Amino acid sequence: MVWLYHIQRPVLCLNLLREIAEYLTLSARLLGYSGDLLRIYQLPENYTKTVTLSISFTDGIRNCWLSPRTALLVGGGSYLHHLPVTADVFLLDAQVCSVTQQMSMSEARFSPGLICVNGVALVFGGYNGSPLATCEKFNSEIKTWESLPCMSTPKYSFSPVQYRNKVYLPCIVTAKSVLEAFLPEENRFEVAQMELPTSSNCSLAFMHEDVLVVLSCNNFLWHWNPTTNKSGRSGLEYKNSRLSSCPVAVVEDKVYWVEFNTGDLASLNLDQIKGLIN
Question: HSE (CB half, 13 Å, CA atoms) of 155?
């Protein structure tokens, strides 16, 4: 901050401070939408910016932040309203709240796994008549798509979780699924010696104290410790859905996500699950 003091142009200084603040709060910002209504949630202050767009988004779209200013939205279609699956791609400029359509993905995807790692968006699976094992990544500099290797098993309606140098893909909606991880630096997948629980419904996931936690819409919690390879399953009652339209955020003592069908912000107090994962 000392070097900012010597800048003689107050406007430039203010803009720099604003951009620094955006970077510091990036991990605590979630994006939700329902039709043409867009909401940007800033956590943990519970500040919400709401705007009406010129286009409508469906519940099959997933999003992630590429930078403090730009969010990527991919896929489409609607299970709830019986709309066809799409390969659509949009970029949101959060500063001016404008949306521009980009080059489509190579494959139409409903509810794929999506996460941004070091400025690169990674898309895993999705659904298009059946679960998909294909994957691709978005090059934000030239705005094009590149193919990735296929996963060992198809996956959809789940939350990829970055932990150290891996992106874990804990999908429980497909039967007899194993825990798979993608290594971005090596551009390959690996399979852990751990079978995931089977669920007839979707889930969301996050890391808490070096433990991978998966919350199922079927009212159970599954956890796995990558260091000890120990896992467990417990019952968990909660009224909200457990499928997020964006990566999950852990802020202070809560887990936050955005409900895929309404765009509403949902949360769970970590005190409710600490005794279940120890």
Answer: 27
> Of the candidates 202, 149, 150, 153, which has an alpha carbon nearest to the alpha carbon of residue 176?
153
pLDDT (tens digit, 9 = 90+) per residue, 196-236? 988 878 999 999 999 999 999 888 999 999 999 999 999 88
Query: For position 135, which CATH number holds?
Result: 2.120.10.80
Is the pLDDT reported for residue 23 higher than 70? no
Beta strand pairing call for 47-57 and 113-117? unpaired
Residues 131-147 as b/e (b if ≥16 CB within 10 A, e otherwise) read: bbbbbbbbebeeeebee
d(CA 29, CA 41): 6
Residue pair 94/50 in contact (Cβ under 8 Å)? The answer is: no
Q: Is 9 part of a structural domain of the chain? A: no
Which one-letter DSSP state was computed for residue 155? B
Does residue 77 carry a pLDDT above 60? yes
Question: From the CB of residue 153, how many other CB atoms can be counted at a distance below 10 Å?
Answer: 18
Task: Judge whether 54 lies within some domain.
Answer: yes
Residue 103 to residue 70: CA distance in whole angstroms: 16
Q: Looking at the domain assignment, is residue 36 inside a domain?
A: yes
Total domains present in the chain: 1
* 129 within domain boundaries: yes
Domain holding 84, by residue range, is 28-277
Residue from 118, 157, 155, 164 nearest 138 by CA = 118
**CA dihedral sign of residues 252, 258, 262, 266:** negative
How many CB atoms sit inside 10 A of residue 251's CB? 15
